[in-house]
């Protein structure tokens, strides 16, 4: 059983926690992290979510997950990359590009340049079915087609891609 910290409207921890899966109350928020992992060629590593996932099964996505109680989004991003893909990242690699406020959650978006090899990825079967590389434009199309992503999210990702010469 995982616990999540509760945040206020300014993304400050309130000192309260909930069991993961429990809806947050009005005016309370949870926190998630999204990692845009790319290599020196400008190729992004994306993953196909397991068919057994409750949320968005079988779709292509970036590495993402909940920030659990006691950690921050940077720590959560490092943990998710290792758990889901077997990638060992260090804090200096993660560059936070935006924090998006949603109705009941915040999403911290990080860009990560990493020399990875798909062949060396160790997939967590409960979470990830497959991985592949894609370009920036294709990735923007993938995230733009999601019902769960708003225009401010897409704009933040596009700005970060342009700033790094990935579009």
Helix and strand arrangement:
Elements (H helix, E strand, L loop, with lengths): L2 E5 L5 E7 L10 E9 L5 E6 L10 E2 L1 E4 L6 H13 L8 E8 L3 E9 L14 E7 L1 H9 L6 H13 L4
Parallel strand pairs: 3-8
Antiparallel strand pairs: 1-2, 3-6, 4-5, 4-9, 7-8
Helix pairs in contact: 2-3
Task: Describe, in plain words, how this protein is organized in 3D.
The chain is an alpha+beta fold and 167 residues long. The chain has a single domain (3-134), classed as Nucleoside Triphosphate Pyrophosphohydrolase (Alpha-Beta Complex). 21% of the residues lie in helices and 34% in strands. The chain is built from 3 helices and 9 strands; from the N terminus they run E-E-E-E-E-E-H-E-E-E-H-H. It has helices at residues 73-85, 136-144, 151-163, and strands at 3-7, 13-19, 30-38, 44-49, 60-61, 63-66, 94-101, 105-113, 128-134. It has a 4-stranded mixed β-sheet, sandwiched between helices. A 3-stranded antiparallel β-sheet has the order 5-4-9. Strands 1-2 form a two-stranded antiparallel sheet. Helix 2 (136-144) runs antiparallel to helix 3. The longest helix has 13 residues, at 73-85. The protein is globular. The protein starts with a strand and ends with a helix.
